[in-house]
Amino acid sequence: MKFPVIAFAGVTATVIGIAGLADSDQLRKGFGDLMASAAPELAATFGNDSGKAARETGSREVAQAQTPPQADAPPADEPPAVDESALRYFASQGDTTRLQAEISRLRALYPNWTPPQDPLAVPRNKDVQLESMWQLYSEGRYAEVRRAIADRQTREAGWQPPADLLERLDVAEARARLINASDLKQYETVIQVGANTPVLLTCSEVDVLWRVAEAFAATKRDGRARDAYLYILKNCNGEPERLATLQKAAAALPYAVVQELLSYERPNTSGTLEFESIRDDLARRFVAEGEDDAALTVDPKYLQRVERLVETQGMASDALLLGWYQLRRKNMSAAEQWFRRARDKQDSASASQGLALALIDRKAPEEAEKVLYSWRDASADAHATYMAATANLLAIEPPVALSGEVLQRIAQETMEARDPATAQQFGWYARTLGQPQTALQWFSTALRWKPDDEPSAYGVAITRHQLGDTAGAAEIQRLWAGRSERIARLGEPEKPAEAGQVPGPAAQRAQPISPENRRPDVVRRQTGLPARVGTSPRQIVRRPLGCRETLDPNRLPPQAALARGWCLMDMNRPLEAAGAFEVALRASASAVREDAAYGQSLAYLRAGLTGKAAVAATKSPQSRARVAELQGAILADRAIAAFDAGRYRETLIFLDQLRRISNERTDLMVLRGYAYLRLNRFSEAKRIFEAAAATGNRDARRGLADVNREQEVWPNK
């Protein structure tokens, strides 16, 4: 138990006396040095008024300590009248810390006083009632002390309690209020009590300083929290307290601030640096912070330390930290390496999900499905990632030969999840394998789950047409009239391809047009959405704990789900983000719903689910700027998807629609040029490529070469 600080003398005893400074001159000097600089400096963090009060208190107490009161000093030939009752109580309880502090305090007040050799032999105070008050105080029963004082003053007119007792009570009660408020997370009260009781802000009250720092950090005043922690590291010498201070600061403050605090590290008594014992945990914490914030550049020494921990301790959790850190920065090759290491140590949902995301990114969905299958139900995030892997797997061109077992389990998961994206891909997969009846069943199922899914409707239409179901195809055309040009134009003949010409969409879907330019991948790169498109200040929500862990967003309130959604977008986990935004859409506040709909649209665009993105954008009214932004992104993605699927006329339609609402970017001009080229419209392709090449675009120059090469074969085109 710590000695309750009182006034100037009590502070001196606690700060200096416990350290063994028995000589009164040393005591006064040490007190003066501390209070004249450190305490006012720290108290100033509470604000101008309280800082001024602290400085005045420090100056007054320094003056009192350096010039002991002369008027009350007894004559030299008389023994001082010293109240030694507190000594006896502390000694009887075995509280050596308080006992030593009390001795030092009395020496500061009475330089000629000699402490008794046996404090237990100190006679009891003849004032039995006062003796009882001291007893209650020593037991921490402060309210009872107050009542005892009030009762006695009522009974005995003119009686006053000792000033020493009142001062001790004031400070002890302030400490109790501060600690209680801290435990209840009433942080403003903690700060207020600290401001009003600057004598508590000393090295003898490190626990109080920690609580004040915590209160500042919890109320987003990181600069003042930093000052409190820094005060301890600058002025306090207890090794355990200094170590704990750094640990607490690392948990509460940003990475950069903690790096500053680390610069105050000292050698400890054993000759090593005092924070070396927690260096591994600090490195882990910093890497985790870097995982939560892609803009944070963590010092390579911390990454290297965690890498060494993987080698020496072999913990899967360390490899996971590195995997998510690298994934966050889109270093997919490194991320895959660390996720594999983690799975080798301990297969887990987190390791499998991270590895699956890395595999999907490098277009290895078959392995991603295999890796994540056993963990698909571990969380909503894991299941969403699994379904993304299955959709990508089925969409591979040319199709991958999958075993019956794999197809069966993907089909079962698709039906249970009622996932229209994977169902649609099953339809295209079956068509490619020459199974139109199976394809029709899957397209129809996807359309039943998502009636506005135009690709599934198109799949139904062309498959019915293929099967000779003219009436069925016509019915789909009727239902989608005015909503899909390609469905409306179903059955119109394509211009037949001649030998040597670039194959049309009916003959070949998204095949390379030349060895030099297998496909306009530059368009896919340049039209991909950035980490945050059109983000307003309201949308940037800081997360105290980050979003590396997996959890069901349905357990979160809408505002927290919105924050988690943006965090997951920053981590490039769009399918998980879409689920979080769906929960945020339940909010009563229109601003939250607007942000959630906007975020979900971006998430689906990032995942390549353009149809879902369009639906998400309608779930809440958006500003005009956001509507234009989302429309542009959706049309660009649809144009790219149509091109990849060999639907070149549809590509041009989407690009024309996009050009009506915004200027056509150079990369999309290149896409337009290749669409014309695939349709054998060489003159138009050449005109577009020449215009784009004039801007210095290398892909446009390559497109011109492709046009010239084709025209050498077909000069009249």
Short characterization:
With 717 residues, this protein is mainly alpha-helical. It has helices at 7-15, 24-43, 48-66, 85-92, 96-109, 128-138, 142-155, 163-183, 187-196, 206-218, 222-235, 239-252, 255-262, 279-292, 300-313, 316-328, 332-345, 349-361, 365-372, 380-394, 404-417, 420-432, 436-449, 454-466, 470-479, 485-488, 521-527, 558-570, 574-584, 590-606, 610-617, 624-644, 648-661, 666-678, 682-693, 698-713.
Helix percent band? 55-70%
Which structural class should the secondary elements be placed in?
Answer: mainly alpha
What is the number of helices?
A: 36
Tell me the span between the first and last alpha carbons.
94 Å
Percent strand: under 5%
pLDDT < 50 runs, ≥5 residues: 1-40, 48-74, 494-545
Overall pLDDT confidence = 77
Report the count of strand segments. Answer: 0
Taking the sheet with the most strands, its summary is: none
> What is the 3D form?
elongated
Rg from Cα: 37 Å
Q: Please, could you describe this protein's structure?
A:
65% of the residues lie in helices and 0% in strands. With 717 residues, it is mostly helical. Helix 35 packs antiparallel against helix 36. Among the domains are: 7-123 and 162-235, no CATH class; 551-622, Serine Threonine Protein Phosphatase 5, Tetratricopeptide repeat, CATH 1.25.40; 642-717, Serine Threonine Protein Phosphatase 5, Tetratricopeptide repeat (Alpha Horseshoe). Residues 1-40, 48-74 and 494-545 have low confidence and may be disordered. The protein starts with 6 loop residues before the first helix and ends with a helix. It is elongated and about 120 Å long.
